[in-house]
């Protein structure tokens, strides 16, 4: 019973952050800055101070769309295997091979991860604008002590990607640099476990790098769980909440259920009336508003619902979202005009 209450509290905490306009606006501005930077850029969004004295750091990068219990199990296995005293959850503004993944928006995924990290004193959240592991390792090294050992945590599918020459102009040179920066911890995926990793590392072109790669012993129950499965369940009407709670920790469940990120619009519905499409418009608009304004706004779920309304207020809010620039005074006037209901 205590565990169930704790899970419920964590869900509510994550949902509250996913509704907090000022916090979402802060994340949206940070994401916009990182995405717009032509130079390599890394920003600690939570737990940055925890990295200053870290000696053994794990880098776990992903889209976390949404965060799953399998992600958490892999992270915990990495802590045990490498004796990590800091685990950095890394989100890239662009993820290799996932550029076209839609829903949830980056800002919502960051809010989900920030809610998750807030309850874990050895974790941090970093946003960066590079997708290759060698670039991510180089960037993360700017945030940790020079003497710190760095371990990159990946699934089996990613170690295959790391050794794939199509991602490099000069594979071996890039891998030499990567393994000078970090070692790799590999978790199983599906039927690909320790034997498959040993076979991959035994290939002549990969053998020189094998000493830098270690297998992670993750409970078999998590080897087939995936964000893809969670998105498919969350897209159902109604979603199977029990199945989602089996797959997702509270922060991931809040992203899937509270924001309705994966619930597809019904056929014939316009994007301007779809709940999550409107939410995405608000996330973009919030980034343009002063902090004093975003702190005055109601929860984002309420804003989206009001925008969907067929009455005068809904029409005015939809018009405001379409306007450029987004005038703060006009927004506050709409929200404060009770006669518009």
Count of DSSP strands: 7
Number of helices: 16
Binned, the helix content reads 40-55%
Distance between the termini: 43 Å
> What is the approximate shape?
globular
Biggest beta sheet attributes: 7 strands, mixed
Radius of gyration: 21 Å
SS content category: alpha/beta
The strand order across the widest sheet is 1-4-3-2-5-6-7
Q: What is the average of the pLDDT values?
A: 92
Q: What percent strand?
A: 5-15%
Low-confidence stretches: none
Helix and strand sequence: HHEEHEHEHEHHEHEHHHHHHHH
Sequence-ordered SSE layout with sheet pairings:
Layout: H1 2-17, H2 21-36, E1 42-46, E2 56-61, H3 69-82, E3 86-92, H4 106-117, E4 123-128, H5 133-140, E5 149-155, H6 156-162, H7 171-181, E6 183-187, H8 194-202, E7 213-215, H9 227-234, H10 241-247, H11 250-257, H12 275-286, H13 291-294, H14 300-308, H15 312-322, H16 328-336
Helix pairs in contact: 1-4, 1-11, 2-4, 2-12, 4-11, 5-7, 9-10, 12-14, 14-15, 15-16
